[in-house]
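Problem 12. The chain below contains 985 residues. Write out its predicted structure in token notation.
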Amino acid sequence: MDGVPRGPEQRRPDSSAEPDALRFSVLGPVRAWRGGNPVATGSPQQRALLAALLLREGRTATAAELIDALWGEEPPSQALAAVRTYASRLRKVLDPGVLVSESGGYAVRGLVEGALDLAAAQELAAEAEKARNTGGLSLARDVLNRALSLWAGETLAGVPGPYAEAQRVRLEEWRLQLLETRLDMDLEQGCHAEAVSELTALTAAHPLRERLRELLMLALYRSGRQAEALAVYADTRRLLSDELGVDPRPGLQELQQRILRADPGLAEPSVPVAEPVSVAVRPAQLPATVPDFTGRSSFVRELSGVLASASGDGSQVMAVSALAGIGGVGKTTLAVHIAHTARASFPDGQLYVDLQGAGSRSAEPETVLGSFLRALGTADSAIPDSLEERAALYRSVLDGRKVLVLLDNARDAAQVRPLLPGTAGCAALVTSRVRMVDLAGAHLVDLDVMSPEEALALFTKIVGEERVGSEREAALDVVAACGFLPLAIRIAASRLAARRTWTVSALAAKLADSRRRLDELQAGDLAVKATFELGYGALDANQARAFRLLGLADGPDIALSAAAAVLDLPVDDTEDLLESLVDTSLLESAAPGRYRFHDLVRLYARACAERDEQPPAERKAAMSRLLDFYLATAAQVYAIERPGDRTITHLEKGRLRSEGFADASKALDWLHAEAGSVLACVQQSLEAPTLRRAVDLLVVTIDLAESGADSRQYRKTAIAACDAAAALGEAQAEMRARVTLAQVLSQAGRFEEAEKEARRADALLSGEDDPWARSTAPNQLGIIALCTGRYADAEGYFLRAIDAFRADANTPGEASAVCNLSRTLASMDRSAEAVELVQRGIDIYDELGLSVRLANARYASGIVLAQAGEPAEALVQLDEALRIFAENRQSLWEGTTHYRIAEVHLRADRPARAAQHAEQALASGCIGGDWMRANALTVLGRALDALGQADRARACWHEALTIYDEAGSAEAVQVRRLLAPLSAA
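Solution.
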């Protein structure tokens, strides 16, 4: 009764023309639908008959074959009559002509294309195999995932009979083969971290399947977890010996030896797979080259030759060329031009980044690596956290490819080194104001100003031959006044080209005026000021004011609405001004509605503001307006996320209205898009007149710390706020800053530091009437005490917090403290009180319509119910919390919830599920930083130990113990107890 390929009589190609066609599933329960409506398929024996006919795929099954399929060697006396009855009932519910009688048997015919899920899975599997064989690995993975998604539980679930049982075994084996193939492709594409969680669960479910064990070892090794990989082999060898009396197959033994040798070949797919050309995996990030590129012919030949040697088949090393020179000398223009001419030599793509090395906040290498890895096709979930791991993965992804990397505006060699490819065939072009003599192996090029001939040629190309030809001497005067700096020449020429009534002589006369340019053109980094003076001097009053004031803000860029606040103008008027500045090249349009200065132009704009802005107080007023705008808008985001929370009523009041939002998603988009600019504004505003508002802006952007994306910058800003408030003697601002810093430190698992800050804030409460700090400080102290196992202290703090929240009529705050108290009582074996309290918190959040806070309450409820011995109810609450956290982009809370789910499954004696969720927690990261990572490793080890994988369990516990010992955590004692029996053995 094995299935065979479908014949043409079973197909009807145009299924889209028949929306009400019958569809059937056997990869799960045997079911039928007509359109979207289920069709009754009858008793288990009747479904067994239908399954047998469907699996024949159009061929006729005789009555004897069907009787044998349903009952085997012991059919009932009325078996033939029963078969006929089942067939008659099915014929009534199916379409006419689908179930046909012929030659004393039955067949299912006339189904539309894809009507049977098994047939669809077979076609998808064949398509995936074809794609893989032709180099389309990404496509093959996607198609195979679609095939696997067709399974909906156990094949032929609930269907009796020997035939159904045989088919169940056959199709389950086929599903596992498909799964192994897809996991193998996952590893070929570098998705090692993602695969570990799934493989851990699969090896627990199928402990004797050696191919799964092999894939798990490889995934762990490539994830930097060598000890666990070797532990998997030890567990497997012991299991096979105990259960079957055999050794692992040779392939598994060889893999263990290669891991022991740290074989470099394991760091990449054994057979390189050519990927299809697509935007996702073949980046083309080079900025557009200028159409009027002029001169630099010797540099073009020199650097093009270096790149050509790097991309040649005989190349043995990766080429690095570093261009150095003062700002405005044309480093970027030259590098981009050369990169475009060399594109054909680097068919696998070109990467580009502005490292912002000339500014006060240069780009962090780990951030750049994350962007590059995504551009090269790496999934976000596969990108590690640390700089070293990202750099290693980046080099691995580039190995075997020919990619050109343009690193523009670098700060120094230390910033560049992690961003360099590691193998031959790739090349890097670096531009910087400093000469990188400490960048090993780099081809160094010092770029000087243009020659007079080149400068005049550039000027002529922009302005036009006709205008320059008649005033050649004046044109030479212009380029000389620009110091032959390409950027200065380009700005001057562009202004002239845009003004048809101006003559070249008129421009030369303007440049000759000492009031229009600086006397010293060679003053280090500020050597291009003369060029900027030309552009700035040609602005009208409104443009000049906008240029000066916008240069004051420290953020990486500025949104149109924020710029309108700085200028104290309507948005439409602001946009007109900013676009006019873009036309002068004094401002860049980073994206629609977003603007930024070149580093040196920003410095020049600030110098102009200090020199020209009258009265001087207007500079501080402009930054105060920006702070007001950010505070009002962030407070609105906070209010949208936390309806009813009284925090915003205790903020310092500004005079500006916020930006409006259509929904909560748009509000969150704004917060995360503006993170860098908002936190930079806080840093700039930490002085007496604006300190309180700056700290309040920090308070209402706490989601930036909780999401994980901006935690580091947020923490640095909070520390600066604490220091500034203490220095100025601003007790209220200091309290709020220290409470906020305590929250961030707690989320990072740094409880000792967090408690120190929270206690300092608490000590200041006696002299200040601040409802926010009076409630939030004890709540935070309670959280710290709860996490460090001091439950009596935690109870006292939470009761204080509840009273303070009630006194402030802050219902959501009270609910938060109530949920925290419930967790504390549960840990003190007061389960009944705990369950009642946490439900009260959930009811409050439900009534207020809170989303993320409701997730926190359900998270707390899951913990409480688990400790009360209600694992099923606990999982319901935790699953709902997980869903809400995911919708609100709270990735650290997602990971933390996975950890709690793993705990519940472990208590319920479901170690395989526990291991899967613990792996997901490790992959996502958790609130609580390294401390929570150690907790997840401990749970993972216990789950693996229960699954018989003792060696891998020990590897997890050793890693957890290292973390606990470094932090001085009490949990180290528990882990030592877990390791003790293994050590004794």
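Discussion. The chain has 44 helices and 14 strands. Students who got a different answer should revisit the alignment rule from Section 12.3.
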